[in-house]
Amino acid sequence: MNISNVHSERHVCLITGASAGIGKAIAERYAEIGWDLILTARRTKPMIDLGRELEKKYGTTSHIFEVDFFEKSATQKLLQSIEANGLKVSGLVNNAGYGHPGVYLDSSWSDHSKFIQLMMTAPCELARALAPKMVDDGFGRIINVASLAGHMPGSKGHTLYAGVKSFLIKFSESLNAELRESGVNVSALCPGFTLTEFHDVNGTREGINKLPSFMLMDADVCARLGVSACENNHAVFITGKVNRFIAMLGRILPNKFAQKLMSKNSQRYRKID
After folding, report:
1. What is the CATH number of domain 2-266?
2. Which residues contact residue 123 at a Cβ distance below 8 angstroms, ignoring those fewer than 6 apart?
3. What is the pTM of this model?
């Protein structure tokens, strides 16, 4: 589906998980600075509403594709649709994701495999497919939405989530180094607690509501910081002074102590049982 004023010579950014939260906020930020968009998510109506809103506010053209990255064939189908519509992608935001409640052994391998497919395989596949054309053009932007959790010691209930986010951080750092002279900027965006429906989906809203306000950030602020960080080619960017301080503690504290501290506090904001 195409919500369009029909522009030419405008950069196009593909955003996964664009129907809500950080993905939606990043879409608005790119629209604000003059990009057109490819919006993907499993829910079509919120994307249609967003596309219409951005067209009205910024004259943005939004191409909308319903995509379920749990399916192994989803990435290739999306790429084929992009090509069939004659779209040239100059930006990629790998944002689609969720938090899986409970501990590792509580879920089947089928569930874990879908998590890895969505959170790790699809971002790598999209980056591998789209980055070469960006390099050829001498211009590109890639944001991988990671997390503060990827900087912290492992804790109960974070088995795959923190592991995948750590991977995205290292993947982004390495890809940034490889493409640094090409005009393609790569950043891992690492939010802390952000006010989105993410916490409703994974059952942690009650715990998040108990956190002090200085630990929480609005999605639009996170998006502005993330897009700016990518423009400045920061390989890794942690949002907010509080989150950067927490990440620093994770690095400098003895691992045994830091892990114990994480385990003690993680159940306040993560649903284990």
Report:
1. 3.40.50.720
2. 16, 94, 144, 168, 171
3. 0.89
